[in-house]
C-alpha cells in the first residue's frame, strides 16, 4: 500500500494561494497526467510527489505535505502565511517612512 497522499484541487490551490485555473494551466503546461478519485471518477486528485514537483518548478513554498490536514486547515494556514507576508511588507514600509524623517 502506497503512503503517498493525494490532494484535491481546492487543497492545492489553498497551499499555493492560487486560482484553480492557474493550477490547471501549470499542470497542462508541464504535461502532468490526471489522477481521478476512484470513488467518483470525476474529482481530480494531485499526488504529494506532483505537489513537490510543482513547488520546485514554480518556486512556490507550501506547508509540510506529511501532515494530515483538512482542507480548512490548509486554507487557514495559507491565508495566515499570506497575512504574515503582508504584515512584513507593511513593517518595511513603516521603517522606510520613519527613516526619511
Can you offer a commentary on this structure?
The protein has 101 residues and is mostly helical. The chain has one domain: Multidrug-efflux Transporter Regulator, Chain: A, Domain 2. It has four helices and three strands; from the N terminus they run E-H-H-E-E-H-H. Strands 1-3-2 form a three-stranded antiparallel beta sheet. The model has no long low-confidence stretch (mean pLDDT 76).
Quick rundown:
With 101 residues, this protein is mainly alpha-helical.
Task: Give me some keywords for this one.
101 residues; mainly alpha; Multidrug-efflux Transporter Regulator, Chain: A, Domain 2; 3-stranded antiparallel β-sheet; 3 strands; 59% helix; elongated
The count of strands amounts to 3
Query: What is the radius of gyration computed over CA atoms, rounded to a whole number of angstroms?
Result: 17 Å
Distinct helical segment count: 4
Name given to the CATH architecture = Orthogonal Bundle
Largest sheet, strands/sense/barrel? 3 strands, antiparallel
CATH fold naming: Multidrug-efflux Transporter Regulator, Chain: A, Domain 2
Write down the overall geometry. elongated
- Largest sheet, order of strands side by side? 1-3-2
Question: Can you tell me the number of structural domains?
Answer: 1
Low-pLDDT residue intervals, each spanning 5 or more residues: none
Our measurement of the CA-to-CA distance between the termini, rounded to an integer number of angstroms, reads 64 Å
Class by alpha and beta content? mainly alpha
As a percent range, the share of helical residues equals: 55-70%
Amino acid at each position: 500500500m502506497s503512503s503517498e497522499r493525494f490532494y484535491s484541487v481546492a487543497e492545492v490551490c489553498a497551499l499555493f494561494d492560487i486560482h484553480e485555473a492557474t493550477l490547471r494551466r501549470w499542470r497542462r503546461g508541464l504535461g502532468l497526467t490526471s489522477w481521478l478519485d476512484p470513488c467518483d471518477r470525476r474529482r481530480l486528485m494531485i499526488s504529494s510527489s506532483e505537489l513537490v514537483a510543482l513547488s520546485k518548478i514554480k518556486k512556490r513554498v507550501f506547508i509540510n505535505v506529511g501532515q494530515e490536514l483538512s482542507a480548512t486547515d490548509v486554507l487557514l494556514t495559507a491565508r495566515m502565511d499570506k497575512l504574515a507576508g503582508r504584515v512584513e511588507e507593511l513593517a518595511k514600509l513603516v521603517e522606510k517612512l520613519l527613516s526619511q524623517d
